[in-house]
Specification:
Blueprint (H helix, E strand, L loop, with lengths): L19 H11 L5 E2 L14 H10 L3 H4 L8 H13 L10 E4 L1 H11 L7 E6 L4 H8 L3 E8 L5 E2 L1 H7 L4 E7 L11 H14 L2 E5 L23 E7 L12 E7 L5 H13 L5 H12 L4 H5 L4 H14 L4 E2 L8 E2 L2 E2 L9 H12 L1 E2 L1 E2 L11 E4 L4 H22 L2
Parallel strand pairs: 1-13, 3-4, 3-6, 6-7, 7-8
Antiparallel strand pairs: 2-9, 4-5, 8-9, 10-12, 11-15, 14-15
Helix pairs in contact: 1-13, 2-10, 4-10, 5-6, 12-14
């Protein structure tokens, strides 16, 4: 039997959950070694659970006939209406129930949105660093990802000049990840307005990934980019995974808003793809209305004295205290993106760096190039572990880096 060839579409999509580092981590765990994982935002793994009222509502609804069956391809009416109300709270104008699509997490809907849009040769502007799913789905949809630079010196804000320079006749859309994964940046209104203006001038669709819009620190507020114009087409993604600690429920939504008059074919494609997958999982849909209308417990976690705020502050202070390491303080989300000064840490292969850290100190991170950052001088750190584990993990990173400095100063 001939080996099955890997599709050329899967080559270099920038999103591969396998690889030698994770393979090594699995091997070590099978051998009984305890690894401290700073690599993934799976909040339940760190004891952060969904609000009890969401759990109880799902338990109550699970035996029902509705929960056992298919729904409308876009989703149940009540949770979609709850999303409409949420867009009104975010000052996004003109959204109706028909503009809302429920999905098996935001990830499914991000893929659907690109599948419906892209033909071979079409380009999409994506931030660098990015959440690599965006790069992957553009490639898998036949398009070409073009990365625009986010500037660490300005708090990881998008470089507007770089965006303008990378718009071409083939550019169809721009992806905005705000709050940002992996950097924790939160974009100010004026910058968002400038991005809208670029989209307006070049007739681009704005894809807005806003999954962390309530995970905000230090009194910061989030502005939905779709609230800033009605003459540009916006596709906004959100869900329960992060703000409501419900990753496994796979419950997300996509909202089409703004200038829809010239997007009839695109919207027809979205409707067709929604129908092809029949519907999102029904129990997950049933959690949305309760989540959006209930007590927003995320506020307790990010407030002074809250668990997430304390973990962010500890990680930021400890990482910045390591020689040759600098970190922009995250304003939002669950991550930071430390920089390793190349003069102190002359890293040629950051995946090998992550492998050696895992092997020597049993701490698992993701290298910066995994987020389509072009140089091997960053990595993403997830600050979800409790304070004791986080202190232990960063202490191990500090010990590893001290050994690295010693070896490379000889």
């Amino acid at each position: 039997m001939k080996p099955i060839a890997k599709s050329s579409k899967l080559a270099n999509v920038g999103y591969d959950i396998r690889g030698p580092v994770l393979d090594k981590a699995r091997q070590m765990e099978e051998e009984g070694q305890r690894i401290i994982k700073l690599n993934i935002g799976n909040v339940a793994a760190f004891g952060l659970m969904p609000p009890d009222e969401i759990v109880q509502d799902m338990i109550h609804n699970l035996p029902s006939q509705v929960a056992a069956g298919y729904t409308d391809s876009k989703g149940l009416f009540a949770p979609r209406k709850a999303v409409v109300h949420y867009t009104q709270e975010k000052h996004v104008a003109g959204v109706t129930v028909d503009d809302v699509y429920l999905g098996n997490g935001a990830s499914e809907l991000i893929a659907m949105s690109m599948n419906a849009l892209l033909d071979a040769g079409d380009e999409v502007l994506i931030p660098a660093p990015d959440y690599p799913l965006h790069t992957a789905v553009v490639s898998l949809s036949g398009g070409t990802p073009v990365h625009y630079r986010c500037d660490e010196g300005s708090g990881w804000l998008p470089d507007l000049d770089d965006i303008r320079a990378k718009v071409s006749p083939n550019t169809k859309a721009i992806v905005v990840i705000n709050p940002n994964n992996p950097t924790g940046a939160l974009y100010p209104v004026d910058l968002l307005k400038d991005i809208v203006e670029i989209a307006r001038q070049h007739q681009l669709i704005v894809f807005a990934d806003e999954i962390y819009d309530k995970t905000l620190y230090d009194g910061n507020e989030h502005t939905s980019i779709a609230s800033l114009a009605d003459d540009v087409l916006f596709v906004t993604f959100n869900g329960l995974s992060k703000n409501y600690r419900s990753c496994g429920y796979r419950s997300g939504w996509m909202v089409v808003s703004g200038e829809k008059r010239y997007a009839k074919d695109y919207i027809e494609g979205l409707n067709m793809l929604a129908s092809m997958r029949l519907c999102a999982n029904t129990p997950g849909q049933m959690a949305i209305q309760t989540a959006l209308g209930g007590y927003q417990s995320i506020k307790d976690l990010v407030a002074p004295g809250g668990r997430l705020l304390k973990q962010r502050d500890l990680a930021w202070e400890m990482m910045n205290a390591i020689p040759g390491v600098s970190v922009v303080k995250p304003k939002a989300a669950l991550y930071m993106f430390p920089r390793l000064d190349p003069k102190v840490y002359p890293i040629a292969d950051d995946q090998q760096f992550a492998y050696e850290l895992l092997e020597q100190e049993r701490v698992l991170i993701v290298q910066g190039t995994g987020f389509n950052w072009p140089q091997p001088d960053h990595f993403r750190l997830v600050f979800l572990p409790n304070l004791d584990d986080l202190t232990e993990a960063i202490g191990r990173i500090e010990r590893f880096l001290a050994g690295y400095r010693k070896r490379h100063s000889l």
